[in-house]
Design brief:
The protein has 327 residues and is an alpha/beta fold. It has eleven helices and eight strands. The longest helix is centred in the C-terminal third of the chain and has 29 residues.
Length: 327
Amino acid sequence: MHPIKIVKNRSDIGAGTRGSDMGIDAIEIAAINQNNDYFNRYPFLDIDTHNEAVYNKVKTSFAKRINFVRIQCERVAKALEHTLDEHYFPIVLSGDHSSALGTLSGIKAHLKNKRLGVVWIDAHADMHSPYTTPSGNVHGMPLAAALGEDNIKNQINEVTKFTKEEWERMKNIGVDGPKFLPEDLVYFGVRDTEAPEEEIRKQIGLRKYTVPEVRYKGLDNVMDEVIANFSRCDAIYISFDVDSLDCDLVSRGTGTPAAKGFDPPEVTQIINRLISTKKIACLEVSEVNPLLDDRGNKMAETAFGVLDAVTMTLEKNRNEAVGNDSI
């Protein structure tokens, strides 16, 4: 396990509601209020943003600000590739989830021909394209772009030439074409989807573990199954969108809250079990929006609690690896 570097990406231009650009600061405030020196322990990188684009008139209604989101994803991809090339383990803290495409693209550019597994802990499938989106918000599209899926069969929107061109450029960030295979994606907690997403998920065979299913089967049993399926992968990327948490239990401090989600210990256990594979290439946390929090700074505090706990596991694995190397 390599030393940790925090990558801070305060972009929120892919979301439908402003405020997730402040999520990283809210998480840092949560750490400060707990007298936790977490953010003083690790080197960090701040990525420039295009957040000023929110003042521009939206011209691409089926992929709002797609050109700026694409530029942001390119920035994130380069930052991730460079961070990994320097032999750091990146913990990415992001605003909205659209730039996860950049994270995935940067990891794939670093891995070259190695096989990447993806764990998407989220209330949403994020498998829309400009051709199927009901909202036009690009934070609902990162996995479709990363898999190169237009989902034309379920098209509902007539897309402009400009949007088509930008979408094609997004699909080829980092490396040309898909960043991973459909069979190497696992969803946890997805429960708020639209018909086009469900159709493409079934069509290409994406695996989904719902909250009730995880609890019925037992989290350890599910994780045994997931980890066995990832035996063919060389590396694993984990994306933790905080709307995977139960908004009634935690708070509504995220752009698209959804009820009946996971509790924080369940998410912590999922991530920790994945860390035990020693294949984790990157962990990303996204979509904390303190402007929407109905319980003070509760969502950021909860996200930090999960982050702090799983970082301890990462550090433990690293220390054990260093100890073994010295024997």
